[in-house]
Write a structure and sequence with these properties.
Layout lengths: L1 H4 L4 H11 L5 E3 L2 H14 L5 H13 L3 E3 L7 H13 L3 H13 L3 E2 L3 H9 L4 E2 L1
Helix pairs in contact: 5-6
Length: 128
């Protein structure tokens, strides 16, 4: 989703995905730290402006995305996230999203090629 926000027409892209995939959206708690980090980095490089960053943050907050905390603490989800990272050569940051998609039986929204390949190998449908 972060890539969708920093591409052309972010609002249109997110709305299109939401219309095409009815239901609730869930993300790992990590997302809420990654989102302002990536937007801030792109703002610093002058790829986006402050208005774009602020609009994007407000848009995402308004989506009513459910936040999952399971992989961020010791337990089954944490252990599986670590195993997925090792099995597919993913960073733990990417593996947390894959673990969540597997556990919830949902789709994985990503434009990351390596994560997309790993997700498909794990039987998760990817929304690019």
């Amino acid at each position: 989703m972060i890539d969708w926000l920093t591409s052309e027409g972010p609002i249109d892209r997110i709305e299109s995905v939401m219309r095409g995939h009815a239901g609730s959206f869930i993300t790992a708690s990590l997302f809420w730290a990654e989102l302002p980090y990536v937007l801030g980095k792109r703002l610093h490089r002058q790829e986006i402006d402050v208005n774009f960053r602020n609009t994007s943050l407000k848009l995402v907050q308004a989506l009513g995305i459910v936040t999952d905390f399971e992989a961020g603490r010791p337990g089954f989800a944490f252990d599986r996230m670590m195993a997925l990272s090792e099995r597919y050569g993913l960073t733990v940051y990417d593996a947390v999203y894959l673990e969540l998609a597997i556990r919830c039986g949902g789709l994985l929204g990503t434009t990351d090629k390596k994560l997309g390949v790993a997700a498909r190998k794990a039987g998760v449908k990817v929304v690019p």
